Amino acid sequence: MASTIQALHNKLQNKEISCTDLVQQKLTQLKESNYNSETTILDEYALDLAKKVDSKIANGENIGLLEGIPFGVKDVYLLQGTYSSAGSDFLKKYKSPYTATAIQKLLDAGAIPVVKENCDSFGHGSSSENTVFGAVKNALDANKVAGGSSGGSAVNVAKDFTTFSIGGDTGGSIRQPAGYNKVYGLKPTYGRISRYGLMAYASSTDCVGPIAQSLEDIQLVLNVMSGKDYRDQTSYASKAISNETVTNTLPKGTKIGYYKNFIESDALAPSIKANFETMLATLKNEGMEIVPLDFFDGNMLVSTYYALAMAETASNLARLDGTNYGPRAEGNSLKEIYSVTRSENFTEETQRRIVGGNQVLSQGHSEEIYNKAQELRGQISHHFNENFKKVDIVLSPVTPNPVPEIGNNLKDPMTMYLSDAYTVGFSLGGLPTLTAPLALETGVQITAAKKQDAILFTCANFLKQVL
């Protein structure tokens, strides 16, 4: 699929459509939608920006490639003057005092945010059901979940309510909903895009990333958002991924790895396993060298990830106690005020993760759980380093099972956690990984070594042609 951004840019610049009409169309679609993918529709904000673009075009000026392009923002990013709720009661009426770096870069390029998008509260979930705004419905089947936590973002892209959306990925929260809704979703190398202005879930794995219908649009948006930010010390300077860097073919003999234990696991749905094996056979026939790799058990990856993620979220959300943010309950003591405020305004899943995180960090348990999880994380990163000396790319399913129906995950949180079994390992390693809506029911996950994001696009282009 060719770049939607480029096509819209041409129409705007050639006066085939006005920016105001384009933005109004998206706003109307969002208002009439019953997919529950939005938290706030940015009517006045977006239309004011659209008028400025139209004025510029009317004056005969050229506009930038992203100028006037409507996009969506997951509601965990700050956008100055707009509500940023994180899908929670706690921040339902919180207005952003500043704008996140990644979003500001898009604004500087002229892109127009039209909606803040529904998501699992504070990113805590894999289905976008754990939100006070109601479950997001899958773009392809309204009886099924949208995936999480960036479910609203993926659905808006899939339904063409936004040209692209900015999601957030901690353990799979861009890749999984992208797969569930059959669009592209990228988690870049950790630190490639600044996290400043993204509400922290687990700071050591949180990543900013784009969701779009085409690889070309993913590439364009990634380049705009990337770069070093002095306000985020984990960010780094990176080169833009140019069209010259990205090709449509992989050389014969390219080493494509896969993890045997992922494919041989009893947890993997037979249909996904069969389609994955068919894909490998096709790639082998195309001259690729298929390399089986050993890796950590999926349950161990999930356990390690959630031990660390819960510990970090307990720490990050300690600031939400009714003193500085959100509503404040009455009580007979400060301790009671804190307790009632947090009990009333955090969802059940968020409370579960905070309690779990405090347990992980508590005296007598931190050595046994947290330190051990950190040690395992080091082993996982080392394992990845060794793997990418043997292969150029790694392919894997995005999820072990097909898309669940709405309500199933809420009945069994453990099932929800295990749905992340094939995504969290790459998060712990800080690796760039892309969901492509190809071959498998919930998409194929393409992963490269750190800072080798460009090869993801070449591989995805190749897969599009041969699968």
SSE inventory with pairings:
Elements: H1 4-13, H2 19-32, E1 38-41, H3 43-58, E2 70-74, H4 101-108, E3 112-117, H5 151-158, E4 164-169, H6 175-180, E5 184-187, E6 207-212, H7 215-225, E7 255-259, H8 260-264, H9 270-285, E8 289-293, H10 298-316, H11 334-345, H12 348-361, H13 366-390, E9 393-397, H14 408-411, H15 413-418, H16 424-428, E10 433-436, E11 444-447, H17 454-466
Helix pairs in contact: 2-3, 10-12, 10-13
Structure report:
The mean pLDDT is 95. Helix content is 41%, strand content 12%. The chain is globular, with a radius of gyration of 21 Å. By secondary structure, the protein is an alpha/beta fold. It contains 17 helices and 11 strands. The protein has a domain at 4-225: Amidase signature (AS) enzymes (Alpha-Beta Complex). An 11-stranded mixed β-sheet has the order 1-3-2-4-6-5-10-11-9-7-8, sandwiched between helices. The longest helix is centred in the C-terminal third of the chain and has 25 residues, at 366-390.
